[in-house]
Amino acid sequence: MFSGSAIVGAVCLSLFIHVNDGLPNRFGSDVDITISLADRAAYVVKRQEAAQRVRAFVPDGSVKVLVIGDSFSQHFINVLSESIPPSELQLASYFVPNICQIYFADPQSDEGMKQQPTLYDSEREVEWPLLQSADVVFLASMWQNWSAVALPVTIAALEARGAKRIEVVGSKSFGNFNRSALLHVPSADRPTMTVAAPLHLMVTNPLVETAVGASRFVDVHAAITGWKDGLRAPLFDTSGRLLSHDGAHLTKAGVQVLADRLGPTLKRRLASVRNGVQHTP
């Protein structure tokens, strides 16, 4: 039988756990590693799905932004939302599956379009009013080499349809890692862990930047790694929180790190777009 002091102790412990939301610190940063696929996806897609339902921008003093792209565009929308106050930004989105890539051109005359039949889904005229009324259009994708090289064609086609300003967001990668194995890494060692970025990224991102020019290119991978060559990427932030669930897509901590590092640049670019100033990277 429990003594009175034991019962009081048990009650106090239960209250302590309740007040502290189940003692999340007992797991440290492991929560970012063990979080379920459903919970991961919910954070990634929530803002993009809301932006995808936007059919017209409201005329006010905010910057009107249309983001076109695959799941990488979902992360970029989160970064924009974490970087720019809601009163200063309106977001709309057009989702293009990665298999299609972002490629807009005349399907009757362009050989690239004929070779990629899945791209016809990208020619949806319903999206053009948003394109024409946006202050800036961001293209964000896990680029393939052919679509990176074809970006001048894509940009010309979008400008012909009324786009005022187009920015292109580069690809990112944290390489390959086993999420479960990270549970065995001591918390103190996690902030210093890095992983080699895949070689294809080192080829594709320069192709994108060359195709569009430095003033239109948003180098998210360099922002994550902290240096231009991006040969190695961190797996955790300084608090030991995981930055990517699968090597490609960002956790909430990853979005916050990218917003901290890229936010000032994005604010400056959007301000220059709103003011009609030709900006520099």
Instruction: Report the order of strands and helices.
Output: HHHEHEHHEHHEEHEHEH
Task: Output the CATH topology of the largest domain.
Answer: Rossmann fold
Structural class category: alpha/beta
Q: How many strand units?
A: 7
Beta-strand share of residues: 5-15%
What does the overall shape look like? Answer: globular
Placed side by side, the strands forming the largest sheet appear as 2-1-3-4-6
**Helical content class:** 40-55%
CATH architecture of the largest domain: 3-Layer(aba) Sandwich
Task: Give a description of the structure.
- This protein has 281 residues and is an alpha/beta fold.
- It folds into two domains: 1-27, no CATH class; 35-274, Rossmann fold.
- It has helices spanning 4-19, 30-34, 37-52, 71-83, 111-115, 128-133, 145-149, 151-160, 199-212, 220-225, 252-274; strands at residues 63-69, 89-95, 136-140, 166-169, 194-196, 217-218, 232-234.
- The chain has a five-stranded parallel sheet with strand order 2-1-3-4-6.
- Helix 4 (71-83) links the parallel strand 1 (63-69) and strand 2.
- The protein is globular and about 55 Å long.
